Amino acid sequence: MTRGPTLPAHRLPHLPTPLDAFNGAPADEARTLLQHCLHSPCWAHRLAEHRPYPDLDALLAAADEAAYDLSPADLSEALAGESLPELPEDAYSAAHMALSAANAAYEARFGHAFVISLGDVPPDEALDRILEAIRSRLVNDPEEERVVAADELRRLARGRLEEFLRAAGSCAAGQGAPTTGK
User: Fold this and answer.
1) 18-173 maps to which CATH number?
2) Is the Cβ–Cβ distance between 112 and 104 less than 8 Å?
3) In this structure, how many other beta carbons lie within 10 angstroms of the beta carbon of residue 130?
4) What would you measure as the largest C-alpha separation in the chain, in angstroms?
5) How many angstroms separate the CA atoms of 83 and 182, rounded?
6) For 131-153, how does the pLDDT look when each residue is reduced to its tens digit (9 = 90+)?
7) pTM, rounded to two decimals
8) 132-145 in b/e burial notation, b at 16+ Cβ within 10 A?
9) Domain ranges of the chain
10) Is 15 exposed, middle or buried (0-12, 13-18, 19+ CB in 10 A)?
């Protein structure tokens, strides 16, 4: 049995991705978005100025590098913009009190908010993870804790950036072109 001629390959039109929208956004809009990911104008400026990024991995690598390069003043500014992760709504008041007390001790020792990237930690384990981390990090010396906090900030920024692009992609799939001004 002979087959007929094959149909030519059809190319789908290039649909803009959230990364395309980010790459093409005005610089001030991109910086505003980035400052929601990490409260550092220096970090946001650096990432916005180095656009376009060929893919998400390149953007995330640049975000990591820019976070590693923050000066102590930039790091302090980024830390000042952070707040303690929110507890699940159904957490007991005793849990809120324990977290408030641990955070107060942390802030008194290190002079800035406790930061932690919870990544894929299930919500029902978040409180235990936060309390465990605060307690274990309270024994750090200030310089050691600054390094740990900087790494947590980097991980937070990376996660927030990925989350934004993923959410923008979901919006694009359901409603047309993504917006970068969230």
Assistant:
1) 1.10.3330.10
2) no
3) 22
4) 82
5) 19
6) 999 999 999 999 999 999 999 99
7) 0.80
8) ebbeebeeeeeeeb
9) 18-173
10) exposed
